[in-house]
Amino acid sequence: MNKSIDESAEGYIHISDDIVAVIEKAADKATDFESFQAELQRLVQNWPPDKIAQCIAVVTFKARALGDAQFDQE
């Protein structure tokens, strides 16, 4: 998959390997959450803004959906 985010016919959103690789690299170097954030920022410096915006949109939507699902179970 060459696109950063690709929506399939089933409605699933696939995130490409380059995004996963960046997260794994940042996690490997991080010693705490602040260093994880700093490493993420360093690794995505050359990404185009639309790619970063799409990633943020996906994780925000997912977090909201998971939060709503968890809230409904209480």
What does this structure look like?
This protein is mostly helical. It has one domain. 65% of the residues lie in helices and 8% in strands. The chain has helices at residues 17-29, 33-43, 49-72; strands at residues 5-7, 13-15. It has a two-stranded antiparallel ribbon. Helix 1 packs across helix 2. The longest helix has 24 residues, at 49-72.
What is the makeup of the main sheet? 2 strands, antiparallel
Bulk shape: globular
State the total count of DSSP E strands. Answer: 2
Structural class: mainly alpha
What is the helix tally?
3
**Roughly what is the average pLDDT, rounded to an integer?**
76
Q: Report the end-to-end length measured between terminal Cα atoms.
A: 38 Å
Helix content: 55-70%
Q: Regions with pLDDT < 50 over 5+ consecutive residues?
A: 1-5
Strand order of the largest sheet: 1-2
Beta content comes to: 5-15%
Quaternary state reads single chain
What descriptors fit this protein?
74 residues; two-stranded antiparallel ribbon; 3 helices; 65% helix; globular
Concise account of the structure shown:
The chain contains three helices and two strands; from the N terminus they run E-E-H-H-H. The protein has 74 residues and is mainly α. The protein starts with a strand and ends with a helix.
Helix and strand layout, with pairings?
Layout: E1 5-7, E2 13-15, H1 17-29, H2 33-43, H3 49-72
Antiparallel strand pairs: 1-2
